[in-house]
Amino acid sequence: MNTGSNGAGEIAAVSDEVKADGVKADVARDERGLGSRAPEFIKARRALHVSWQVGVFVVGLAVVGVGIVMLPLPGPGWVVIFGGMAIWATEFVWAQLVLRWTKRKVTEAAQRALDPKVRRRNIALTVIGLVIVAVLVGIYLWKFGMVMPWKLKDQ
Fold first, then answer.
1. The pLDDT of residue 148 is above 80
2. Cα angle for residues 76, 79, 84 (degrees, 5° grid)
C-alpha cells in the first residue's frame, strides 16, 4: 500500500490500489474506524445516542434470537445470526471485531477447502460416510422391510 508519506510528520494518504487481477482493494472499507455508524446529529446528543444504541441492541438481539431458534428448526440460522451481528456492528466495536474475525476465518477456511489435498480427503470421507449410511439402510431394510421405526410394535 502506498502511504503517500516520505517524511516524518507528514500525514499518510490512503490510495485506491488495484490488485494484480484488477480488483480494487478494500482498503477503505476494511480500515475505516471502529465505532458508531450513527448519523452525526444523533451522535451530537448524548441521550439520543444512548437511545439509538439501545434500539440497535434490541433489534440485533431479536434477530440473533430468531437465528438461534432457527438453528434446530428449518431456516438459515447462522445467516440470520450473522445478520444480527452485522446490525450490532453498526454501533458496537466488539461486534465489529467479531465480524472481522469471522470474515477472516471464513476466508481462510474457503482457501483451505480449495486445496487439492483437502478436497480429495473431503471427497473420500464423504464417500465413506455414504457407504456406511447405505449399509445401515440395507441392514434395516433386510431386517424390518419397509416398516417405519414407529410402527415396529404393530408387527
1. no
2. 120
